[in-house]
Amino acid sequence: MDANLDALGEALPLILEGMFITLQLTVGGAALALVIAVTLGLLARQHNVLLRGTARVIIEFFRGTSLVVQLFWLFFVLPQLGVELPAMLVGIVALGLNYGAYAAEVVRGSINSVAAGQWEAATALSLSPAQRMRRVVFPQAWALMIPSLTNLLIHLLKGTAIVGFITIADLTFRLDQLRIETNTFFAYGVGLVMYFGIAYLLTLGMNALEVHAKHRLGRGESLREALSLRSPDTGVASGQARS
Q: Fewer C-beta neighbours within 10 Å, C or N terminus of the chain?
């Protein structure tokens, strides 16, 4: 065990570097996925058949093909067509396209879930379609879609592990190197703890975002109140005994 800990100590700088790369891929892929999801989700609701059909084809294509194949195509095939992208950018684009297609259905479904009365009220206020979406519908849909987007974000984090196939030394790649110096149980045990820690922090962040989004709609306590140690009913600290 001491030898394993010593090997971990020596490999820690590279492991932290790999974790930073994993975080870059996660944040970059998630940002691109969100842009793609909102764009495709809105287009998939258009009355124009051409726009709606194009969005559906893109969504189904990237949902229906393997993320690994998409990654390989971007990294190995595009250079043969004269387009060569940095490995990090390829990883972000592949993750963004794949998970953005899944998230587009979340966006579309959440918008459709907004009560019909809200659409009617926005129309009665003589708001333009863009204003109805931006000021009335989308804020409500956003609060609805956050839990599903949280799940996809965690899936995206775990999906970053495949970038080792295109020579990116991410967290999984560094853990595999640690395995050579130690053993499978120890190295991947460290990996389980590290991935869980990252996923848990991301989940907490998304939960905070959900609380904030619902509070802006008047449907719950503020983030400050949610983080407070004081009881909302009695105004006393939750750790104090009640009389």
A: C
Residue 224: the pLDDT is 82
Q: Give per-residue pLDDT as tens, 115-137.
A: 888 888 888 888 888 898 988 99
110: its two tokens: 């959440």
Q: What angle do CA 54, 58, 60 make, to 5 degrees?
A: 115
In which domain, by residue range, is 167 found?
A: 12-171
Is 135 part of any domain? Answer: yes
Cα distance between residue 205 and residue 223, in whole Å? 11
> Which residues touch 227 (CB under 8 Å, ≥6 apart)?
none
State the total domains in the chain: 1
Q: Does residue 142 sit within a domain?
A: yes
Residue 234 covered by a domain: no
Three-state SS for 144?
helix
Query: What is the CATH number for 133?
Result: 1.10.3720.10
**Rounded to whole angstroms, how far apart are CA atoms 140 and 188?**
41
Q: Is residue 138 part of a domain?
A: yes
Query: What SS3 state is found at 99?
Result: helix
The parts of the chain modelled with pLDDT lower than 70 are: 229-243
